[in-house]
Design a protein that fits this description.
Blueprint (H helix, E strand, L loop, with lengths): L1 H4 L8 H4 L5 H31 L7 E3 L5 E3 L13 H4 L1 H12 L4 E6 L4 E7 L2 E2 L1 E2 L2 E3 L2 E3 L3 E2 L2 E3 L5 E5 L5 E7 L16 E2 H7 L6 E3 L4 E3 L1 H16 L3 H22 L12 E5 L3 H12 L3 E4 L6 H6 L4 E12 L2 H4 L2 H16 L9 E10 L6 E4 L7 H16 L8 E12 L20 E8 L3 E9 L8 E3 L2 E4 L4 E4 L4 E4 L5 E4 L2
Parallel strand pairs: 3-16, 16-17, 23-25
Antiparallel strand pairs: 1-2, 3-4, 4-5, 4-10, 6-9, 7-8, 11-12, 11-13, 14-15, 17-28, 18-21, 19-20, 19-21, 22-23, 24-27, 25-26, 27-28
Amino acid sequence: MIRAVAPQLSVSLSSRLAPIMGEYERGSTTVIDAFIRKRVVHYLEALGQRLRELGFAGEVTLIHSNGGAIGLSRVSHAPVALCLSGPAAGIGAMRYYGRLCGSDNLICMEIGGTSCDVSMLQSGRAQIVDGFNIAGYHVSMPAIDIHTVGAGGGTIARVDDAGLMRCGPQGAGAMPGPAAYGRGGVEATTTDALVVLGRMREGPIGDGSVVIDALKARSACAGRIGKPLKLDVQDAAIGMVQLLEQNLLHAVEEISVKRGIDPARYTLMAAGGAGPMHGATVGRALGCKTVYVPRHAGAFCALGMLESDIRHDAYRVFDAPLGEAELAQLPQIFAELSDGALEELSGEAGDAAPVLRRVVDLVYKGQMRSVQLDYHPGEDTMVTLKARFEADHRRLYGHIKPITPIRFTALRVIATIAAPPLAVPSHPQRATVPEPTSTRRVFLDRRRGWQEIPVYRGDDLGAGQELQGPLIIEERTTTLYAGPDDHVTVDDSGNYLIALR
């Protein structure tokens, strides 16, 4: 009706954005969509028009919060679904690197300048949640289950009024950044502590626009942490790094141990510009046997966008008991959801055929949080669904309720069109013993103290070469630190596999 009267107005409609039960959840989602719609849609439409004027004939795609890609033409349907598009792109990178390291059970710790985003692949599939919070406001949209903590290279350490050291969640940002950057920052950050301990080198980094100043790093750590705690600068820096890595450990445990999953059975992937600096330490604390470090760790999410499938999620509330009569209704409802999902994807990927995945949400009567199960038409019965629901419930919560009725809460169809897989890089094999470019005095731990350790340049390392820690590998977008008990192998694709002992 609004469009008939005033077609120039943008409209956000809750029944299309979030067809769920819950007035607040629907309302909050719709308000956020309306708030960002004008700016986001206008900007992207102008971008598409400008690219066409410049001769670009392809399709611009963006990443949804659910980790899938959508065409620019569909963004106006629900711009609110782009809220977590940056970190959600990491799922595509996890799948890509999972193929390279031969594992589809991965936990990724992607650490940048301000935060650590932790996500998981189980049997190659990412965990999806139905809602998330943005600045304290609820958004009811399918999204990759990402646990984020304020722990990165620019995370600020401080001493609180009780005399305890705190690490984060505040960050120094890009400007002024860590004190070591020499851009006016005075707070002690993780980067400053790593410089004090020798794990990051002095001098220019990246394109040379930033020059690491060790004296400024020492001054910040000594003045902000050491002085109030009566510690020398070395112990202040050690405490800062240990506290940050403890926060990283808890972040990984949040999406694994607390959900009945043993992280020791997974490969830990250390990504982001700062991830490879802490991956081995956190992996060892988790009981992991291996840590995988992409050579291009600093471009992790950007690369993941290239590996993200086109995707649309169709959803319908279905509040009903798990019974024969209700099961008989599923084919018709799934057919309607499938038609809607296929219509959304029409024209997205040429002749590629979409793949449909049907999912049922089940709960025990009276429960709030549902368990999602794949539904297989013609195969699943009340018996099979109940058995699989109870198995997942026991894994997640440690128990089942044999006499409590089970109910449906929702049905969903996930339609995807597979992205063309990225080529597997072939890195040159090198049979020679790798030679370090230099050595550096680095603090290892309290038992071993300071030692002169080798520093390697990533471009000099080839597939098949093996290195025994302690060591540092300097790459274009990241720095890898391996401890005394770590063994590093360069795999066939040029990435690093750290065996923990």
